[in-house]
Amino acid sequence: MIAIRRIKLVLNNCLSFFALNILSLFFHKTMTPNKALLFINTSVLGDVTISSLLLDDEIFLVHDDIYFLYPDEYFEFFTNYNGKVKLLPYNQKKYKWSLSYRIRLLSKLRRLKLEACFNLTSARRTSGDEIALLSGANKIYCFENSWRKNLNAFSKIVDTMYSEILFKGVVNEYERHFLVMELFGWERKGHLDGRGKFLNKCNNLETLRLIDRLGDYLVVAPLAADPKRTWGKDNYITLIKKFSEHLNIAVIGSKHEKKELNELFTFNNNKVSVFAGSLSLNDIAFLIYKSKLFVGNDSGLTHLALCTKTPIIAIIGGGTFGKYLPFDDSEIRKYFYYELECFGCEWKCIYDERYCLKEVKLEDVYNTATKLLNN
Description:
The chain is an alpha/beta fold. It folds into 2 domains: 187 residues, Rossmann fold; 177 residues, Glycogen Phosphorylase B (Rossmann fold, 3-Layer(aba) Sandwich), CATH 3.40.50. The protein is built from 14 helices and 12 strands. Strands 3-2-1-4-5-6 form a 6-stranded parallel β-sheet. α2 links the parallel β1 and β2. The chain is globular. The termini are far apart.
């Protein structure tokens, strides 16, 4: 099964690389660029959330035309954003399978007459590289692809097509983004404090009433896209039972996780509420922002919480340790993991179980959560 998957990935890379080279014959660099800037992130929620840190008017004081391209499935994430950066959502499936859609999107980007394009995607695939490299920008930048187990067969060749690979040797994605911001004169005053301001707003009256009814509550995100990256259902059930004795609990997840979450958390129904697929991404962000504490795994929702300046506890393990989390460990941000020599394995575990997660003690998490709630 793994061998078949690897063959499919290699074939997909070959087709994507072939398409990039064919299209590059027709899409050349813009000869007379404006001062327009394009930032791109074609990855998942956590990565897009980190890139959203750039959506700050104070960063681009001398640029008027700034654009951010991202997958349209996260459109709701930006509901309350009204800054100067112009948002460009695009459909990844259409881009992959529809040649006409692909050409229209690339043509649209080229009409912007870009001075520079920054591909902020962490694990770059050829299709995302294609958008950046064929955008027509005069200068095109990307981060070093630090994923050791990435199966992109042409990554080294594609790297040579960029004007520059930025910040080689810097692994953490938050740090990389801050370094990009500093290129434009931004001064670092204190990690994440004050970032993600548009996430701390809500115009949905139903959501505002819901939060008002919850009173004092904590938010828990017990699941993840990869079930093996979680702390464990039993641990979360026990933790929620303990806290539901004196606090309301908002359990969050995707619409695909709704059935499982409802089955897991049927106890103490007057204290535990499941919100999976019933709230927009923006409303989820606001729900987290207004909570007393967020508890979750190494997942996109944890990055969402991190950017809302909410007290958090994240049980992260060691699969991508340092690449995303831990970051900005402080009095209100605590990370749990059981340290092993194999950290940084990119979740290709050498053991029968992921001990970096399994060995995190429930008592330690509970005690830390209690301290944060009492601060």
